[in-house]
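Obj.: predict assembly geometry.
Materials: sequence records (below).
Method: joint structure prediction, all chains together.
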Amino acid sequence: MVEEAPPVKARGLVKRYEEVLAVDHIDLNVRAGDVYGFLGPNGAGKTTTLRMALGLITPSEGVIELFGRDPMREGARALEGVAGFVEAPRFYPYMSARKNLDLLAALDGDGASSRIEEVLEIVELAPRAKHRVGGYSHGMRQRLGIAAALLRRPRLLILDEPATGLDPAGMRDMRLLIRRLAGEGITVLLSSHQLPEVQDLCDRVAIVDSGRVVYEGALSELRRQGGAGYRLRTTDDERALAIVRAQAGIEHAITGAHGLGFQAQESDVGPLTLALAGAGIGILALTPELATLEDLFFRLTENDHAGTPPSAGPDEGAPTTAGAPASPPAVAAATQRTVEIG
Amino acid sequence: MSAVAASPPAGVQARAHPRRPSTLTVWRWELRKLAAQKRTYLGFVLASIMPVIFVVVENIHQRGGHRDNIFAAQITQSGLATPVLMLLFLSVFMLPLVASLVAGDIVANEDGNGTLKTILTRSVDRGQVFAAKALAAMTYAVAAVFLSAAVATVAGVASWGFNSIRTFSGTVVSAPEGLLLVFAANACYLIPLLTVTSIGVLLSTATRNSAAAVVGTVGFVIMLLIIGQIPGLAGIHPYLLNEQFENWHGLLRTPTDWAPIAHSAWVCALYAVPALLGGYLVFLRRDVAGG
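Observations (raw C-alpha cells):
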C-alpha cells in the first residue's frame, strides 16, 4: 500500500522582498488528520507562507508541497482537495452570496454547485444568501469564506485567522465548526493569533518568528518542554518558602499573590510535602500547572530566538526548536509567568 | 453556525480525477461579473449616446448642401449614412476609450479587491483565468462597437429612411447591401480595437492599477496620434496602430479594396501578440499578494 504524501510539506522555504527576508528557510510538516496551528507575531511570515502554499506567490527558494504536489509547478492541480483563504476571504461585493458561490463552484467544477445550499446552511447564511456581499458584516464574510472552502470538499483546509473580527459567539461557532471538520478527517492548517483557540483546537503547532520556525511539533510536547510548575498554598507561606528552597530538586521557587510557585519533577514533590508537614505547615492547595501556550509563545517569540539558527529539517514527529525552550532558565521563566498569572 | 447539527459537507476521500472547468466556463463567468457591475454600462452608454446626440442635432439643424465627406453629404438622404459617419467619428478616440475602460480594469480591479486570490485558489489555472479575462474584455469591445452601430443605424433610419447609399467610390448600393456593409465595416474596425483591448489587458495586468491601465491605454493611442502628426515621420504612418482605425474604408469601395484590411491585420498583430503574450507571462509569474 502506497503511503499518501503529507498534506503540507515545506523544505527550506524562503521569500525575499528585495532587502526584506519575509520567510527564512521554513520547514513544515503537516500530517493527515492534524489540526495544525501556525503561530507567530505580526510580520512573522505566516501569511506569506500560506500564500506560497496556495501558489499565490513564488518562493525565492525551497519548495512547499500539498499532498506531494508543488503549486508552482502543477498549478490548480496541486490544489485538488485543498481549500481555504489567506487573510480575509474576498468576494465580489456587487453580487449576492449565492451568486458568489455559484461563480466559485463553476470554477471548482466537479459538481461543486450541487453543494451550495448545503454549505450555506452549515454557515447559517441561507436566509441572507440573496443579499449582496457588499452589505455583509465582517463575520458574515468570514462564514462565507468557510462556505466557499467547503464547496471544494477539502481534505486540507487552510485558514488564516478565521476568527479575527468575530464576536465571542462567532468565535465559539467557528471553533466548533473547525473541530467538527477536523473530526471528519479534514486536515486543518490554522493560522491564528488567538492562542487559547489554538491551544483548544490544535494538536501540533509551528511557531514562527522573523520568518523562522522556532518550534514545530506536538503542542503537548511543547508544553511538556515548558516544564511542570506547581502552585502551593500553605498555612504559613513565608516559612514554607524557606523549606521549599532548601528542598533538593526544587527550583525557581517564588512567592506571589496567590501563594508559592516552584518547578520540580513529580518525584521531588512528595518529599517536599513531608518536609512541610514535619515543620508543622499545613498544605491548603498543591496544584500542578503546565506552561500555557501563551507563555511558551511569548518566550519563543520575544526572548530566546535572537541569534539562533533556523531549524534544520525536522525528523518526522520529533519537535524542532530553534530557540531554547527546554533550557532551565527559559523553563523557569515560563513557570514563573504561570505562577504569577495564576 | 450550525457547527454541530448540520450534516457533513465534505468527504475526505481523495478523488482521483476531479472534473475541472473549461476556459469557456471561466469566460462566461467573467461576462457575468461584467454584467453585474454598473461601471460596465458606462461604456455602453458612451458608445450609444453619441449617435443619438448626432441624429438629434442633425434633425434640429437640418443642414443640407455640400459636405466634404461623401457620407456626410448623404446624411439626410439615407439613414445608413449615420452609422458610417459615427464609425468615422468614434473610431479614433471614443471607442478605444470605451474598450480600455473594461480592458484596463479587468485584472487590476480584481487584484486591488483581493478577489484574484479567491479565484486563483480554485480549480482553474492562471492561464485559463488570463485567457478568460482577455476574451471577456474583447467581448465587451465587440459588444460596444455593434451596440454603437445598431443605435446609429436605428436612429439614422428612423430619421432619414432605409434608403440606398453611395459608397466612397461613388457606386450606389441598395439599402440591404448598405446595411451589410455597415456592419462589415464595424467588424473590420474590430481588428485595431481588439488590439487596443489587448494593450489594455497588458497594462491592467502589469500595473495592477485600474486607473493607470485605462489612462495608459488611452494615452498610448493619443501618443500614436501625436506621432502621426510629426513631420518627417510619414514613413512610419502605415505601421501606427491609430492608422489602422480606418482599415474599413476599403469595404466601402467598389470593387472592395482588401489591402488596407490585410495590412491592418498584420500590423495589429505586431502590437497585439506581444501585448497578450507579455500580459500572459506577467500574469503567470506574478505574486498575488493584494487585497
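Conclusions so far: Chain A has two domains: 8-222, 228-290.
To do: check interface contacts against the pulldown list.
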